[in-house]
Amino acid sequence: MTREVFEIEPVAHVVGGRIEPTDDYWGGSQSIIRIDASQFDAESIVGLEEFSHLEIIFRFHLTDPTDLHPGARRPRDNQSWPPVGIFGHRNMRRRNWLGVSRCRLIHIDGLDLHVEELDAVHGTPIIDIKPWFSEFGPRGEVREPIWPSEMLSAYFASPK
Amino acid sequence: MTREVFEIEPVAHVVGGRIEPTDDYWGGSQSIIRIDASQFDAESIVGLEEFSHLEIIFRFHLTDPTDLHPGARRPRDNQSWPPVGIFGHRNMRRRNWLGVSRCRLIHIDGLDLHVEELDAVHGTPIIDIKPWFSEFGPRGEVREPIWPSEMLSAYFASPK
Question: Which domains does chain A have, with CATH numbers?
């Protein structure tokens, strides 16, 4: 059987902000999404300033691709939380190593998008930049287990 | 300069639902995300049933990759709406051809995730499956121009 493989290339990179991919305290963090000027020009972001939030696809480029756990495991290996399969986590140990995050767009300077609370470190390859449409948020009642809110209680807290 | 390229492979495919990638009337649509059994087993989805919504990264596999418009253009070529750059759109004509959507998880049968209102057609390669954490939705006040809500007024309407 032929493998079905797609190539993706960064459209931008994260500049500034945090260097270490630690779990928590992204509150108030500021960084730049620097769009690749060899591929794109000012036309690429016309109208983007009308949106308060962006949705970003990025590559977890610091993850060791051999560090994949096929079995279910507890979030952050915390015994208080139930084992969850690879598709029940959102962390960096995943197939294709893509993260999806929402961040606030603060201002635009040339091809630099200044953003807040993007949970991706300096140097992260950005695979896509989309405006956040509230119409495309989850529809209907949202239900989730208790462990994500417990796990993320300090995720967007300010650094100590 | 060396190109920075990553390979991605589908973890699943969409089975059933709509065949034609038309713009509107995804309301109530049902389809299956069939996880690739050659790569994953039942452990991969342990705990997923606790979540009402999934966040899906998929490939716009029907898009002609040469059909890219570098300049700003009006959404759906509608003269009522302003020109927007490639990063101001969410449609299929984009670099890396990745869509991100939220859908409702209805039930799970083996490695088949039965979902509602996933706006991806039969055969679509799924690149990632994540649980929706409400903590990771947009934080703070959301602001967007008027054109997305006008454009999407029938997007999740029921088919006529």
Answer: 12-63+81-151 (2.40.30.70)
